[in-house]
Structures are given as structure tokens and as C-alpha cells.
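Z., the sequence and structure:
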Amino acid sequence: MRIIAGKARGYRLITPKDFKIRPTSDRVKESIFNIIQNYIIDGIVIDLFAGTGSLGLEALSRNAEKVYFVDKDKDSIDIIKQNLSKMNLLAKGEIIHADVISAINNLTEKKVQADIIFMDPPYNKGLGNAALEDIDTSELLAPSGRIIIEHDKSEDMPIEMNKLHQFRRKDYGNTSVSFYKQKEEI
């Protein structure tokens, strides 16, 4: 895994030695960033189910202002810290060692509003849907913000919610990426 573009282009990420983290492929990552590139520069980003931090680190490389990395796995937290340190980006990243729902509630209480929220949950466990429902009822997403969820192609993701709607879905083999925004952007 590597950083595709920006000031850290070509940087090889530290990854786990086992297979408990399923990384986003470079092809999928490049496609996602081509779609959302206008929301990254000087933006606030939240990387939920962060794993190695690949998506958030890519955002920092492309000039995001700050990234909140959220994961409940201690090994993932250690890897994210190592990657941030090695890339000299510790000041622009905040690492949250917690489950995603607790982190969503905590960030909402702190009045964080994200321009981009990435989610790459374990496939077919309903975790992406649960997190999306919590975000939908919170003020965590900025009015013109975007949510990007990587999921298994067979996994049903909602088209419409209370405040959010899916405006795009792209399939890459067995992986799909769903894009959400608020129904009425301000």
C-alpha cells in the first residue's frame, strides 16, 4: 500500500503482518479521490474503521487540514501512529482508540463537522449501516460534506435516510463504494 498523490506521493505505508486488515486497493482509492478531490483541500476528514489509516493519510497528502483516525483495534492504532510519524504528519492527525459509534458521539459532542467521512468497515457485518444511521442523526457531517463507504458488492446500503441520500455507487469487482451527501445542501 502506498500514497498515490500529493506531497507524500509514493510513500509506502506500514501495514500489519497478518491479514486482519483488508486494505483499500490503490485502484479503488484513486477512483474515490478523483471523485472527491474538491472537498479535501483544507478540509476536515474523519477516517472511521481506519485500519492502517490509508484513506486519511492520502487525504493529508492531498492537503486536508486535519484527519481524525478512528479504530478500536490496538494494532491498527499503533500502525496509524507509525505512519503519521514517519510522514511527519502527527500534528495534522488525531487518533481515537474507540469503537466507531462512541467516536461519532464524542466528535459530535466536540462540535466537529467533517467535510469528508471515510468508512471501510469489515464487510457484511452491518457496521457501515449502523455508523451511517448514527451520522444521519448527528451534526457530524458539514452541510456540503460527503460520506464514502467501501463495502461488499452484495451488501445493501440505504438509498435514502432522514437527512442523507446516496448520490453515487461504483462497483469494483466484489467491492462497492457508496457516496452520500445531505439531501438539501446548504
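The chain has five helices and seven strands. The longest helix spans residues 74-86.

Let me know what you think.
H.
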